Amino acid sequence: MSRTVFCQNLQKEAEGLGFQLYPGEVGKRIFDNISKEAWGNWQKKQTMLINENKMNMMNPDDRAFLEAAMVAYLFEGKEPKIEGYTPEQK
Length: 90
Known about the structure:
Blueprint: E1 4-7, E2 12-15, H1 24-33, H2 36-52, H3 60-76
């Protein structure tokens, strides 16, 4: 059975994540307030950010940067800065 959350990113009721995909308080906040659709959108942007910035996920600074970008995107609607990428206009 899928669960429904009010997605803070999409500002609508939507299917929630099946389980907490990210650790800690941030992960709980995402699980409680972010839909599967919004998480999928973030995953695509995260991949672009990691590739473009040649990030190493073993590097704590890179992980901290990504987490900040993720929270800003999911909860504040701030698009990450990705060279050569323009988000589609809503």
